[in-house]
Design a protein that fits this description.
With 305 residues, the chain is mainly alpha-helical. It has twelve helices and no strands.
């Protein structure tokens, strides 16, 4: 009973923090005009500090690895975080969230092309449904713009590439996501520190008159970003894939509602159709994958027992 209560508590926290970080960042972009890459750099710094504290409390242990081994994956990690934040800045919350759903078909396409991995016809059909839903939503978005679409597309590609590479790195170095993030976060912060002066108005950012509320919201954004990572890794490690996926669907719906209520992002009927198709596709995909996993587990259990 105690374990179930703890699991429910972490699920609620993860859903809450995941929604808050998106809405908080959107608020900073709209009301403060806070520079995107600078905000990403602050997130990385706060995340690293949070991981140091976690290590001191034995939540995870640091594993030694050569920094050069983490360079490429850190560049990709930097890229997808910055681009997804730019997507949020230039798109509605609904479109930003729907675009992220394209990560699933993109990851699978990479596995088919580069690793010759085979997928069932049912999986492929759900991916077609997801893709059609995303395209319909983008086309009929009231704030549709080319630059937002470019950022969203590039963000999805790099996020997919990162997911494929992180899977390889975890197996190669026998490290969990938090151990990898311990190296990625500070390296990413350093990389962006040298990039920011060329892409954003540093002097304007430093000299403008910041209100106390603005500063609190920026720091809070960094803390919440870290808490999203922390609770996500706990859920992935302690619950089933079905639980994690269902939590994701719930966040998806609440974020659409949050964007509509806080930023007055109205949805037309065509967008509702696109979002519905996307959600149905994602749920069916999760169902197929989880069913396959449990079926495989059942046959392995029968074979070896």
């Amino acid at each position: 009973m105690k374990k179930k209560i703890l699991t429910a508590f972490y699920l609620i926290l993860n859903i809450f923090f995941s929604i808050v970080i998106v809405l908080l960042n959107k608020w900073l972009y709209i009301n403060v005009g806070f520079p995107n890459i600078t905000l990403s750099m602050i997130h990385f710094v706060v995340t690293f500090i949070g991981l140091i504290i976690c290590e001191k409390f034995d939540i995870f242990c640091i594993k030694d690895i050569a920094i050069k081994e983490m360079f490429l994956i850190t560049v990709i990690f930097c890229g997808f975080v910055v681009l997804t934040n730019l997507s949020l800045e230039h798109n509605t919350v609904g479109t930003y969230q729907v675009a992220k759903m394209l990560t699933t078909p993109c990851v699978i396409m990479m596995q088919i092309v580069f690793y010759r991995k085979q997928f069932s016809i049912f999986v492929k059909l759900t991916l077609i449904l997801i893709t059609i839903g995303v395209v319909i939503n983008f086309y009929y978005d009231i704030q549709f713009n080319i630059i937002g679409t470019v950022y969203a597309s590039m963000g999805v590609f790099l996020m997919s590439l990162y997911q494929v590479m992180i899977n390889i790195k975890q197996r190669e170095f026998q490290m969990d996501p938090m151990q990898l993030l311990y190296y990625q976060a500070p390296l990413s912060a350093v990389m962006l520190f040298f990039v920011v002066p060329f892409l954003e108005p540093v002097e304007q950012t430093l000299t403008r008159s910041w209100s106390l509320i603005d500063l609190i919201m920026v720091i809070l954004s960094g803390i919440v970003a870290f808490l999203v990572n922390l609770t996500s890794y706990w859920i992935i490690g302690k619950t089933s894939p079905l639980t994690y996926n269902m939590a994701g669907h719930f966040k998806f719906c609440l974020l659409l509602l949050g964007g509509s209520l806080l930023f007055h992002e109205t949805l037309n009927i065509n967008q509702v159709i696109g979002i519905t198709l996307t959600l149905i596709g994602i749920i069916l995909y999760a169902h197929v994958k989880v069913s396959t996993m449990y079926l495989l587990h059942y046959y392995l259990k029968k074979t070896f027992h």
